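Query structure, 190 tokens:
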């Protein structure tokens, strides 16, 4: 009796494998075909709008994930009924919620960077204006010092000119007095 039971076991295994293969082909052809057709491009596809970049999410990613979810969820449920332990997928709502949160964080980060950039620009402009103001003040100070120096040199030159003119006049006056006939006659009579 052990002989026929042992011979039946390989035959049962082959038959079981055949039935399992047949069952998976039937399931794949009859059940997954409509779902795979649903995921194929159709007249209802949503084109991505030009506005969807980078932080506005159009309908295309949600539609694509919904189609993927429909196919993959069916496959996972089917395998789970045969005893496989396959984790469930995020629903399209959960998936889109995650996408929205990520995009919101990115937009917020971009906004913070832009605000920081604007603040740095304002600081740069302020420092630039401050430096220009200081340079203008220093230029005026240098110009004032130059004017003062010119005035000093000019007044020194004027003083020297006046002293020289006065000395020349004194010499000329003395020469005139020495050669004056009136003065010589007064000087000679005494």
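Result returned for the query:
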């Amino acid at each position: 009796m052990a002989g026929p039971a042992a011979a039946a076991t390989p035959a049962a295994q082959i038959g079981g494998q055949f039935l399992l293969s047949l069952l998976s082909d039937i399931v794949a052809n009859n059940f997954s075909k409509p779902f795979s057709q649903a995921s194929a491009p159709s007249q209802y596809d949503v084109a991505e709008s030009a506005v969807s970049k980078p932080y506005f999410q159009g309908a295309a990613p949600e539609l694509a994930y919904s189609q993927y979810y429909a196919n993959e969820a069916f496959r996972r449920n089917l395998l789970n009924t045969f005893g496989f332990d396959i984790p469930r997928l995020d629903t399209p709502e959960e998936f889109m919620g995650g996408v929205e949160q990520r995009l919101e964080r990115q937009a917020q980060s971009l906004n913070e960077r832009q605000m920081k950039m604007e603040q740095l620009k304002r600081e740069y402009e302020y420092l630039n204006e401050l430096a220009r103001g200081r340079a203008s003040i220093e230029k005026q100070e240098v110009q004032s010092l130059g004017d003062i120096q010119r005035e000093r040199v000019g007044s020194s030159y004027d003083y020297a000119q006046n002293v020289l003119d006065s000395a020349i006049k004194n010499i000329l006056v003395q020469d005139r007095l020495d050669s004056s006939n009136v003065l010589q006659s007064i000087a000679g009579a005494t």
